Amino acid sequence: GTLVCAGRGRALVVATGMDTEFGKVAQELGQVEQRKSPLQVKMDQLGKFLAVASSVVIAVLALLGWCMGRPFLETMNVAVSLAVAAIPEGLPICVTVTLALGVLRMARSNAIVKKLPAVEALGCVTVICSDKTGTLTQNEMTARSAYTLAYPTLSFGLTGVGYDGNNSNNGNGQLIRSTTNTNETNNDTHHKNEIVTKHSMEHTAASPASDTTAIIATMETANS
């Protein structure tokens, strides 16, 4: 997106809502498959294993009871009782309490966890790859150089960093000549005035030579 601080201009709207690039990103995020945490995967595997084991126990006991001549109803009661006893009913409570204790320990280290399964997932992480965007940068764009289409051979650098206009060292936004063509030295001041009349860290005011003169600025993100 583009931020406009001040001034007047004309814009052509080509898309709105979900048809914009941001809208496409939102649609893609809504289609992201929610993956299970390692703990949830292990719990599912344990549940399937217990279900299969219980079925095998019931079948084996029913077969043994039939071979030994035991009453069918009594054999089934014993098999079902053993199968139910094999199910750990207190396991969900134990897992929840354990994760809650992990959340408390992480909170003491200023790490806030919104979802309990994320605690166990963090415990499985061995390498963390962090992007610098938003971490080492402040999202403050700074104009570094400027030129006009009317004078494409001229290029001027701009001083200043970020949006701070109170700093005497960074707030003046002075133009610095970056071209070395000696034939254009006499008109240096004239071209400077046509490119930019005032540049500060809070806004940039431009005075083009005509309505059709465009100002091109090279931007970069200020580091924190």
UniProtKB/TrEMBL annotation:
<keyword id="KW-0813">Transport</keyword>
<keyword id="KW-0739">Sodium transport</keyword>
<feature type="transmembrane region" description="Helical">
    <location>
        <begin position="78"/>
        <end position="104"/>
    </location>
</feature>
<keyword id="KW-1133">Transmembrane helix</keyword>
<dbReference type="InterPro" id="IPR018303">
    <property type="entry name" value="ATPase_P-typ_P_site"/>
</dbReference>
<keyword id="KW-0067">ATP-binding</keyword>
<dbReference type="InterPro" id="IPR023299">
    <property type="entry name" value="ATPase_P-typ_cyto_dom_N"/>
</dbReference>
<dbReference type="InterPro" id="IPR023298">
    <property type="entry name" value="ATPase_P-typ_TM_dom_sf"/>
</dbReference>
<dbReference type="InterPro" id="IPR036412">
    <property type="entry name" value="HAD-like_sf"/>
</dbReference>
<keyword id="KW-0547">Nucleotide-binding</keyword>
<keyword id="KW-1278">Translocase</keyword>
<feature type="compositionally biased region" description="Low complexity">
    <location>
        <begin position="169"/>
        <end position="186"/>
    </location>
</feature>
<feature type="transmembrane region" description="Helical">
    <location>
        <begin position="46"/>
        <end position="66"/>
    </location>
</feature>
<dbReference type="GO" id="GO:0005524">
    <property type="term" value="F:ATP binding"/>
</dbReference>
<dbReference type="InterPro" id="IPR001757">
    <property type="entry name" value="P_typ_ATPase"/>
</dbReference>
<dbReference type="GO" id="GO:0008554">
    <property type="term" value="F:P-type sodium transporter activity"/>
</dbReference>
<dbReference type="InterPro" id="IPR023214">
    <property type="entry name" value="HAD_sf"/>
</dbReference>
<keyword id="KW-0406">Ion transport</keyword>
<keyword id="KW-0472">Membrane</keyword>
<dbReference type="GO" id="GO:0016020">
    <property type="term" value="C:membrane"/>
</dbReference>
<keyword id="KW-0812">Transmembrane</keyword>
<dbReference type="GO" id="GO:0016887">
    <property type="term" value="F:ATP hydrolysis activity"/>
</dbReference>
<keyword id="KW-0915">Sodium</keyword>
<protein>
    <recommendedName>
        <fullName>P-type sodium-transporting ATPase4</fullName>
        <ecNumber>7.2.2.3</ecNumber>
    </recommendedName>
</protein>
<feature type="region of interest" description="Disordered">
    <location>
        <begin position="169"/>
        <end position="189"/>
    </location>
</feature>
